[in-house]
Design a protein that fits this description.
By secondary structure, the chain is mainly alpha-helical. The protein contains 3 helices and no strands.
């Protein structure tokens, strides 16, 4: 699922606040850290979209594809998603 820029910035702010209130954690360059958090969240979103696209392509290639949203499609989607993740990350 694609996250809006506002959502990414909101999550980055929540992470920054959480780190700021954590005992023993000192943030020396908050602006640099916030930029890095936004970059990581954006990269993760792009990766998830890429995996989702690959899974949907695989499911659409079946001779008898299940209708999207059906219980069968959900099972196949999650199973295929795990296979794609394992293959990409060698888990």
């Amino acid at each position: 699922m694609r996250m809006s820029r506002e959502r990414v910035f909101h999550l980055a702010d929540l992470i920054m606040k959480g780190l700021g209130t954590t005992p023993g954690v000192t943030i020396k360059a908050p602006d640099d850290l916030r930029v890095e958090i936004v970059r990581v969240l954006s990269d993760e979103t792009k990766l998830e979209e890429s995996i989702d696209g690959e899974v949907r392509k695989i499911l659409a290639s079946y001779a008898r594809p299940a209708p999207e949203g059906s219980p069968q499609w959900d099972v196949l989607y999650h199973k295929t998603r795990e296979e794609v993740r394992r293959r990409r990350f060698r888990l």
